[in-house]
Amino acid sequence: MCNLHKFTGYASKLTFLVNHHQFSTLGTSSAIGHLIYLKGKMMKITNMPPRALKAGEAATYLGISRRYLHDLCADGRIPYSKIGRRCHVFEIEELNRFLEEHKIKAAI
User: Which residues form the Helix-turn-helix domain (predicted)?
Assistant: First the structure.
């Protein structure tokens, strides 16, 4: 399981606790205040735009098939990061740079 999924799951549980006031194990108002503070921090983190996209998302972003994206990677034309054995991620900045480098200027 990806760390983001674990984090999002934890954020959901924390949000539920804060919204439904289920703090029987915490006991003090300072703990409640701290949880509300953490909830706000997590909401800010999870609402950030992504820095990188998975292969399927990157292919959609570029308007190409996943297969063609993998061919471009194999040829070394698009940089990517490999997380684990099979997970390829593509930085949005690099995808934008790839699009700019392959832009065809209009003939006037």
Answer: 53-102
Q: What is the 3-state secondary structure (H, E, C) of the chain?
A: CCHHHHHHHHHHHHHHHHHHCCCCCCCCHHHHHHHHHHHHHHHHHHCCCCCEEEHHHHHHHHCCCHHHHHHHHHCCCCCCEEECCCEEEEEHHHHHHHHHHCCCCCCC
Domain extent listing, the chain = 3-46, 52-101
Please give the model's pTM, rounded to 2 decimal places.
0.55
pLDDT greater than 50 at residue 16 = yes
pLDDT band at 4 (very low <50, low <70, confident <90, very high): very low
Q: Considering the chain, what is the average pLDDT of its residues?
A: 76
CB-CB contact of 11 with 48 (8 Å): no
What is the C-alpha to C-alpha distance for residues 99 and 97, in angstroms, rounded to an integer? Answer: 5
The residue type found at 44 is: K
